[in-house]
Amino acid sequence: KEILEKYHDLFTLQWEGIIGNIRVPSQAEWEQLLTNCSAFLFYGMERLMSQTLLNRLVAMNIPKCHLMIILDLVRSKQSYQRITNSDIHKSCLHIAIERPKETAMLLSLTGVRCIIANQWYTTLQENAERLEILFENLLSVGRTTGQTVRILQK
């Protein structure tokens, strides 16, 4: 929340979204946010694709979304329990499609033009540091996504 407030005025006056610790977004809210955004940020626990209905997502058309930043793959005892209970009802193929590379491919096929995402599990602190670096370089300095990702890799 602090990072969003810090960069609010640099990019847009229309930061719009849902803070998940208040409540979990409904499928309709996910769809509305995704179809109406030019950039989308997911900062949360476990896998992004475990938060939404996969069959609805693959049917979506999201060409207005120029950039999607996915800072997920954070695990806590509670999130692990929730995802484990959810995964029991999914096929192995469905779970495999929720992995980072497959998520990027699916989002690309729906029309998202650029995707920055974690590839492996991390901590909330590390994701907060990544978000700060992303916003600093993309919004304050004005670097391209490629330049910014290169800085993250270092």
Spell out the blueprint of helices and strands.
Blueprint: H1 2-11, H2 27-35, E1 39-45, H3 54-58, E2 67-74, H4 77-87, H5 92-97, H6 100-110, E3 115-117, H7 124-141, H8 145-153
Parallel strand pairs: 1-2, 2-3
Helix pairs in contact: 1-7, 7-8
Strand count? 3
User: Low-confidence spans: pLDDT under 50, at least 5 residues?
Assistant: none
Number of helices: 8
Strand/helix succession: HHEHEHHHEHH
Terminus-to-terminus distance: 25 Å
Q: What shape does the CA trace take? A: globular
Say what oligomer this is: single chain
- Kindly state the percentage of residues in helix: 40-55%
Radius of gyration: 15 Å
What would you note in describing this structure?
The structure is a single chain. This protein has 154 residues and is mainly α. It is built from 8 helices and 3 strands, in the order ααβαβαααβαα. Strands 1-2-3 form a 3-stranded parallel sheet, with helices on both faces. The chain is globular, with a radius of gyration of 15 Å. The two termini are 25 Å apart. The model has no long low-confidence stretch (mean pLDDT 89). It comes from Eudyptes sclateri (Erect-crested penguin).
